[in-house]
Amino acid sequence: MPIQEFEPFTDIPESELLQYIADLTREPNVVVVRQFQQPEESQSGEALWTVIAGRIITEAEAAGTTSSGGRQTGSGTADVTPSPPPTTGTASTSSVVPESWMPSCSMDRVICHWTAGEYKASDHDRDSYHILIEDNGRLVPGTHTIKDNVSTADNKYAAHTKGTNTRSIGVSVCCMSGAKSNPFNAGSYPMTKRQWDMMIDVVCDLCRRYNITPQPHTVLGHGEVEKNIGNPQDGKWDPMKLPWEPDLTFAEVGQLLRESVRAKL
To answer: Does 32 share its domain with 117?
Structure first.
């Protein structure tokens, strides 16, 4: 693959930057050389990065990097990031969730949702979940940190699951407005396979960070909470139907969720 330059850009949120780098490195045998300025903080509290320069190069080109893993390019050292492993069937240690989104604390479980809205995260969505996934795979941080849900006694936490918010992380895909369960209709904004795959990656990161072993009561969909944990959920069924595999039952989707996470841990 020939060398390709990509243009400098400024004020890109950390989540978008990570997704951009991930997209660039999906070609086999390719690495990305890049330079960053120190981030500034946006009004929302998310770090905004400036990419000074960058280019896609082959692994052969990357062989000229220094032993410390960097290449001198002008005013500073650029990081070299290997191409990520395949998205299925192979354990991965790469991270998609920024470290700053995963504060040090003790959490018991990850509960997966959909917003029942459109493809972009609304203010209400951000107030309800810790991490949201838009249609293009972009990650959006919630208003509340994961640490806010260590205790819910102060009423300042992400209220994503009725009666099950304490020490629970809420991850949601932005989609499924107007969806119906029986007969199944995915509505105007059906969940995409890209969102599902990104959700698996996000849950993997959270399980690693918080030492959560994927089990039916620790990694589950909102629609499994009543059965697996015993807390009534008023008929919630997200995200237990897949528009691209509509014949799978709720139980099969829950099993697929956990098996997919285990395969990547």
So the answer is: no
- Sheet strands (E) in 83-222: 109-114, 131-133, 139-141, 168-173, 180-181, 184-185, 219-221
Looking at this protein, which amino acid is placed at residue 262?
R
Q: Provide the β-strand partners of residue 76.
A: 73
Asked if 129 and 113 touch (Cβ cutoff 8 Å), the reply is: yes
Whether pTM > 0.85 for this model: the answer is no
Are 8 and 50 in contact by the 8 Å Cβ rule? The answer is yes
Domain hosting 9: range is 4-81
Residue 162 in contact with residue 231, Cβ under 8 Å?
yes
* Tokens representing residue 230 in the block: 């015993």
Higher pLDDT, 1 or 33: 33
Token code pair at residue 105: 């604390």
99, 106, 62, 67: which is closest to 80 by C-alpha? 62
∠ Cα 27 33 101 (to 5°): 85
In a domain, 71, yes or no: yes
Per-residue pLDDT of 118-173, as tens digits, reads: 999 999 999 999 999 999 999 999 999 999 999 999 999 999 999 999 999 999 99
Contacts of 2 (CB under 8 A, 6+ apart): none
For residue 85, what are its two tokens? 């492993």
Statement to judge: residues 76 and 107 lie in one domain: no
Number of other CB atoms surrounding residue 82 within 10 Å:
13
d(CA 92, CA 210): 16
pLDDT at 85 over 50: no
55, 156: one domain: no
Q: How far apart are CA 191 and CA 196, in angstroms?
A: 7
CATH number of the domain to which 153 belongs: 3.40.80.10
Total domains present in the chain: 2
Kindly list the distances between the CA atom of residue 110 and the CA atoms of 131, 168, 199, 203, 222, in Å, as whole numbers in the listed order: 11, 6, 11, 7, 10
